[in-house]
Amino acid sequence: MKPSLQNEKEFSKNVSLYEVDYWRPDEEEAVKFLKPGKLLIGGVGAGRTVGHLLKKGFEVSAVDISPKMVEKCKELWPNVEVKVMDLLRTSYGGGYI
User: What is the C-alpha separation between 20 and 28, in angstroms, rounded?
Assistant: First the structure.
């Protein structure tokens, strides 16, 4: 089985584990180096970082390989564009930070 399909299978089994809303200290530190703008989140999961990034002024789009994770993220963040997609094969154009 391809690694990407194995990941999708494993993450889809445990969606509720990944919908927790928290922001890690290393994420807070990393975002300090970015100017607000269009941000593409690869492997967004259930969207735990989306709210924090929106509050910081980012225009968020997101992808995840798991349809169940994308469904949960869309449920939590209905105004954010979230697609089922392999980040390595994304069809998003440029302009993202």
Answer: 17
pLDDT digit string, tens, across residues 43-52: 999 999 999 9
What phi and psi values does residue 60 have, to the nearest 5 degrees? -95, 135
Residues 6+ apart with CB under 8 A from 28: none
Q: What is the pTM of this model?
A: 0.73
**Segments making up each domain of the chain, as ranges:** 3-89
Give the integer Cα–Cα distance in Å for 18 and 33.
26
Class for the domain spanning 3-89: alpha beta
DSSP structure class, residue 34? S
Contact 54, 62 (CB under 8 A): no
> How many residues are present in the chain?
97
